[in-house]
From TrEMBL:
Localisation: Membrane
Entry keyword Nuclease: no
Transmembrane segments: 32-53, 65-86, 101-122, 143-166, 186-212, 248-268, 288-309
Cellular component terms (Gene Ontology): plasma membrane
Span of domain G-protein coupled receptors family 1 profile: 44-307
Organism annotation: Acropora cervicornis (Staghorn coral)
Membrane topology: Multi-pass membrane protein
Keyword S-adenosyl-L-methionine found: no
A GO term, aspect molecular function: G protein-coupled receptor activity
A Pfam family reported for this protein in Swiss-Prot or TrEMBL: 7tm_1
Keywords recorded for this protein, A-Z: G-protein coupled receptor, Membrane, Receptor, Transducer, Transmembrane, Transmembrane helix
Protein name: Orexin/Hypocretin receptor type 1
Record-linked InterPro entries: GPCR_Rhodpsn, GPCR_Rhodpsn_7TM
Length: 333
């Protein structure tokens, strides 16, 4: 399967040679894996959204941002994954308008996920390291979420929609991103690279600051307890708060690590193909591209798994939601 690989931003790579022979083995493997990812991701992310939606006591700021992350994951699974799979192995079956609307949404979902994880990090830094400052309310969190979606669409989705074209060499329709010149293409690459690098260092620095602060806080609490009494109400309250923050930070840290582990390989490969001069027609590079792309899209199914493993609160909410659902169906029957 000979094809040229071209970087188009946010970890996407395009094929210049449209009329390609389909690798049946690759098609079978990717079909099976994407079906598994799609099923797991849809169920997991829907459960997160419904669990927080149906329980008012779980409508915390952090949970609202996690729901927003789940919504962007649903978008990737329901829109970007099928569109990418169809465009990779089959002629584009839809019209130009569908190409212009739906394909750029992958960039939008990607940006929403990055911005949401960065905002969660900054919000946690504020809560843990600056506990006496006012916290973000649920209403403010919802406003921030709306702004994130609008900015993400206007920054990447809307401009790219004008560059999407339907190409039909040898009657093989493909929905492709066509740059008017090299300058615009490279400016877009630099912009996307900035969106990737800055949040990466922001989240890493934020959680490093949180870990350092929590270790110092733990040492102060224990020192106070040793000087007074380990049974005091203040000590017990401080330790409960510290333990609660520790559990939440561990969950968020796992989500961030999973996200960057899935996103960075394809992004780095795409940048290398643009600036590194690697042979993009080699089977090794194309195989690596297929693997990195599968990992990129699979993040949307891994996120809810990480959330349920690390969050006892969401697990309890899930059990309560399941009981409520089962009672509803029992009543109907």
């Amino acid at each position: 399967m000979e094809e040229d690989i071209e970087y188009s931003g946010s970890g996407q790579i395009e094929q210049d040679n449209y009329f390609i022979a389909i690798d049946r083995t690759s098609l079978t493997v990717q079909s099976a894996w994407y079906s598994f990812v799609l099923t797991l991701g849809l169920i997991g992310n829907l459960y997160i959204i419904l669990t927080v939606w149906c329980r008012k006591d779980m409508s915390s700021t952090t949970n609202l941002f996690i729901v927003n992350l789940a919504i962007s994951d649903l978008g990737i699974l329901a829109i970007s994954l099928p569109a990418a799979f169809i465009n990779d192995y089959f002629p584009w079956p839809f019209d130009k308008l569908t190409c212009q609307i739906f394909v750029p949404l992958n960039e939008v979902f990607f940006c929403v996920s990055i911005f949401t994880l960065t905002i969660i990090t900054l919000e946690r830094v504020r809560v843990v390291c600056r506990p006496f400052k006012p916290r973000i309310s649920a209403k403010e969190a919802k406003i921030i979420i709306v702004i994130v979606w609008i900015v993400s669409y206007l920054a990447v989705g809307f401009p790219l929609s004008f560059l999407m074209k339907i190409e039909e060499p040898r009657n093989y329709r493909k929905c492709m991103l066509q740059w008017p010149d090299v300058v615009q293409k490279r400016l877009h690459i630099c912009f996307i690279a900035t969106l990737i690098i800055v949040p990466l260092f922001t989240t890493a620095g934020g959680y490093a600051a949180i870990v350092v602060h929590m270790r110092r806080q733990s040492a102060r609490i224990r020192a106070r307890a040793n000087s007074v009494s380990s049974d005091t109400f203040t000590f017990q309250r401080d330790m409960l708060n510290l333990q609660s923050n520790t559990k939440l930070i561990k969950m968020l840290l796992v989500i961030v690590i999973v996200f960057w582990t899935c996103m960075l390989p394809l992004t780095l490969l795409a940048l290398a193909s643009e600036f590194g001069g690697i042979d993009t027609t080699s089977k090794a590079v194309q195989g690596l591209y297929s693997f990195c792309k599968a990992l990129f899209l699979s993040n949307s199914a891994f996120n809810p798994i990480a959330v349920y493993i690390m969050s006892s609160e969401l697990r309890k909410g899930l059990y309560a939601f399941q009981k409520k659902l089962s009672r509803h169906f029992c009543t109907q029957s």
